[in-house]
Hints:
The protein is of the alpha+beta class. It has 16 helices and 6 strands. The chain has helices at 3-31, 41-50, 52-69, 77-92, 99-125, 131-144, 148-176, 180-188, 198-205, 214-261, 269-275, 282-295, 342-346, 388-435, 443-454, 463-479, and strands spanning 299-308, 311-317, 331-332, 354-358, 361-371, 377-386. β4 (354-358) and β5 (361-371) form a beta hairpin. α2 crosses α4.
Amino acid sequence: MNKSLRRSAGLLVLIASGICLNLLLGRIASGFNTPLYLDTVGTMITAVIGGYVPGIVVALSTNLINAIQDDYNAYFGIINVLIALITTYFYNKGLFKKIRYILCYILLISFLGGIYGYFISWTLEGSYSGGMVHDISAYLSGLLHIDIFFSDAIASFIIDILDKVPSFILASIILKFVPQSIFSEMNSIGWLQTPVGNKVFKHINKNKSRVISIKYKVIIVISAACFMIVFILSAISLRLFSDYSKNQHINLAKQAANAAVLCIDPEMVDDYIAHGEAVPGYRDTENNLEIIKNVSKDVEYLYVYKIKEDGCHVVFDLDSADVEGSDPGTLIEFDEGFTPYLPALLAGDEIEPLITDDKYGWLLTVYEPVYDKTGKCSCYVGVDISMQDLNVYKKNFLMKFSSLGFGFFILILALSLWLAKYHIVYPINTMAEEAGKFVYNSEEGLTNNVEQFKELKIRTGDEIENLYLTFVKTTEDSVA
């Protein structure tokens, strides 16, 4: 196996090991019912050994796999990605060699995880419903006399510190046993030329451009493109999800309404209006309607009206959690939202589902006619589905999509930057560095320069390699 294949295989093993370690430690922490997560240890290790891109891949993959079992994990995709970025940055800058920077690192990633976790829980549930966070929050609220909003945030931050400290220690211990040769192998990945020494590497990284470096041009273009893609996909996905959820609500309402229609005896509607519960069979029918209503918690109201010119005459009107149903025979005036549909309702025709937002709330309403033996409409079964949950579903969907979307956005940006560095920036800057060393006052010095230039062995397989080969040939011809 050649070096390139060996390094690629090693990188895949590193990524797979990081993912497995995250999943294994996460399951162990969950199995012992601890407040810890320990699902970032593999991310930290991979980021230190492999750098930004492998660390981000491990972070995103871990969250996606966990989200299959519990979609709540999808909300935290961006946090693991940021931990990978921060870990790589601290390691590359040599900051893990000093205690104060280690403390800053732990506080920073704990702040991101804790406060973001708090934001997610507060947005979805209004507060933490239980567990150690709830207990710490209650204690802090009483001790410091602060609002539960702030005590929850502080408690979440504290719990995340308790998670990140052992995670960092465990990652550090494992890294102690990683051979230095593996670090060297991983650092060599990506070079499409002879790798340069640290001194030259730092120099070519600091090369100044007249206006703006190719590296930053790539960052700007890819960032703008990815941001637009994420924004457009979010808008489209949200619209599709909203339409899908609305159709699901409509289908649910129609199913309930059609089931209720089968319970109604159209020949008895006028008797029900006139005498209500005194009519034999009224209570049995009402009980059957209650069963239909209670089958789905999303059914807010279920009622049966006879539509006349003067308004809606109640046949059945079931109690809801907040509103007591009207008695049989009660006359209810038409809501403004029904005005365009009145001609069809008075004619006994079917109408499309409609959405109204009035004193009863934001509701999706389905009306199904009940026909007698002659084909005449005796009354309508009305089913109202609350649309408030739709907003919750949309918000949850958007938060999950945005978290994972921006996680992939960072991955694409990091990968693009990595490719730009190793395929464009480093080869060009290395050639410029070596060309700047050329001396022309000595044939021996010029020959040495040409040999050093040939030792770069740039093999990008594109126009840059063509430029390199042309430059090599030109310098060789100048020596001959």
